């Protein structure tokens, strides 16, 4: 069982605007704190420096389940000096993702005729103006399936306010220094390369996602439960494509992505060595998968433990 990677989600969210599902992203109502929820929250220590690490699934949960976050996480955050987070998309970022999401190859060179007909029928079902249909037809085939998958997930209520946005608001309230990480150039490069080199494999992967849904297997609910429980392995199994043995050949490319992000993060930390406590909110796979940022911190002499 696997789940969407953040770089897939970000690309497909660009098209959500076109098909008007933004209403599915609702703010949570106030509810009691969930201090018994472990979640994916870790502390890295070295000498006198503390780095808190919060693994995000980017709002892929029901609002009443995810919020409010446990007190121990919020308390650690408000005591931090610096907040590092994946920056919201700028106009320039959106242009990068739109460019990366468009296919440079003919669909017939990537997928079979019956698969093309299936995608066309999905687009027709949206009843969009012709120019918007043509816009969707320019995208990578696997990405179109991803968009429809995300539509189903959103309509089922599993699209809440991203955790990052909660922390941004809190940082503003507590005057915490915010340092946004501009990952869009890295991620858009990755989407473009992977779509060109592995477009057919990614399409097959998305078909498996939809087959789970047809079999009434709620992957969004499984991800939500694992995230709340702090079940690192299950979250990664649901997030990272290559953890499915059928798609293991993608692991090398995912590792290269992690290396680029790790270098960016480590540089940001080294530039803020004056900060005794840093709080990082980032995609759980970028933090916790093999070769992710936690692995790099351990190699740099940090001690990591759940908190």
Uncertain residue ranges: 1-32
Task: Give average pLDDT, whole number.
Answer: 88
Secondary-structure element series:
HEEHHEHHHHHEHHHHEHHE
Query: What order do the strands of the largest sheet run in, or round the barrel if closed?
Result: 4-3-5-2-1-6
Give a quick account of the main beta sheet: strands, pairing sense, barrel closure: 6 strands, mixed
How far from one another are the termini?
27 Å
Share of residues in strands: 5-15%
Structural class: alpha/beta
Tally of separate domains: 1
Layout of helices and strands, plus pairs?
Layout lengths: L5 H11 L24 E6 L2 E8 L6 H4 L4 H8 L3 E5 L4 H11 L11 H13 L4 H8 L3 H15 L7 H12 L2 E5 L2 H31 L4 H11 L2 H8 L11 H20 L6 E7 H5 L4 H7 L3 E4 L1
Parallel strand pairs: 2-5, 3-4, 3-5
Antiparallel strand pairs: 1-2, 1-6
Helix pairs in contact: 1-7, 4-9, 7-9, 9-12, 10-11
Structural commentary:
The chain crosses the membrane at residues 7-27. The protein is an alpha/beta fold and 307 residues long. The chain has one domain. It is 53% helix and 11% strand. The chain has 14 helices and six strands. The chain has helices spanning 6-16, 63-66, 71-78, 91-101, 113-125, 130-137, 141-155, 163-174, 184-214, 219-229, 232-239, 251-270, 284-288, 293-299; strands at residues 41-46, 49-56, 82-86, 177-181, 277-283, 303-306. Strands 4-3-5-2-1-6 form a six-stranded mixed sheet, sandwiched between helices. Strand 1 (41-46) and strand 2 (49-56) form a beta hairpin. The protein starts with 5 loop residues before the first helix and ends with a strand. Mean pLDDT is 88; it is low at 1-32.
